[in-house]
Design brief:
By secondary structure, this protein is α+β, with helices and mostly antiparallel strands. Helix content is 30%, strand content 22%. Helix 1 packs across helix 2 and helix 4 packs across helix 7.
Length: 246
């Protein structure tokens, strides 16, 4: 009996099922390679600061005493999400201490945190933004460090491309090495509960808060609604704002 060795292409064409299986296998290999190569975590600096929940440092609370009393722990995340104009994941490129002497205003100091967004979860912004926080690097709310990978819930200010955190430490979360899991800067029980969870789990929690608001916005009595939540209000809703467009 004489055997004939056929080229691979011809063998596959004679057996469509084998051709389909081979194509599916090749496609899965390509998808796997792309997911690994394009994974943002591969771009993270492995030597960046690692935060330890056991030694969490909390600065002085700067929002009004009445707000601290009125907001229970479980309300802090929805409050910050619904008040935000921008939610991003990004790298802290630079941290600059703006002292009283530099500003020339007695009693005033703040920290400029320059962030390069990796992913805009909600809202719109430039490729590099400034986040201003009251107090110097070593005073007031805890400040992130250069090269930190962070998730910020931010509000717009009157200055273009400059943002502020919604609730100081309550609206900042690090993507903590070595596992690239969440670290809450806040010691609020409901927020610190995200420590060690994946970025995707935290993103889903934010998405869930927005879905709840979209389903029944009238159950939320917060005085301020940011642009992200505002976009989810139906036209004609008494709380919906109309923003000017350029």
């Amino acid at each position: 009996m004489k055997f004939q060795i056929l080229p691979v292409k011809e063998r596959l064409l004679r057996n469509p099922k084998a051709f389909y299986i081979a194509a599916l296998f090749l496609f899965s290999v390509i998808v796997t390679l792309l997911s690994v190569l394009l994974d943002p975590a591969r771009q993270y600096d492995p030597n960046r600061h690692q935060y330890d929940p056991e030694t969490r440092v909390i600065g002085k609370e700067l929002y009004p005493e009445a707000m601290k009393i009125s907001l229970a722990d479980e309300e802090v995340l929805p409050f910050n999400v619904l008040a935000a104009d921008l939610i991003i994941e990004g790298k802290v490129a630079e941290v600059i201490d703006r002292t009283e002497e530099q500003l020339g205003v007695p009693g005033l100091s703040y920290t400029s945190i320059f962030v390069e967004p990796r992913e805009i979860w909600y809202g719109e912004c430039n490729d590099r933004i400034e986040v201003r926080m009251i107090g110097g690097i070593d005073s007031g709310p805890t400040k992130p460090m250069e090269n930190d990978e962070m998730i910020f819930l931010l509000g717009e200010t009157s200055t273009e491309n400059v943002y502020s955190t919604i609730g100081s430490e309550d609206s900042m979360f690090a993507i903590n090495p070595p596992g690239n899991t969440i670290y809450a800067f806040s010691n609020r029980v409901a927020l610190a509960a995200f420590d060690g969870k994946s970025v995707n789990q935290f993103k889903q929690a934010i998405s869930q808060e927005l879905r709840k608001f979209t389903t029944d916005p009238d159950t939320y009595s917060y005085s301020h609604i940011g642009k992200i939540a505002n976009d989810r209000l139906p036209d004609g809703h008494p709380r919906k704002k109309v923003y000017e467009t350029e």
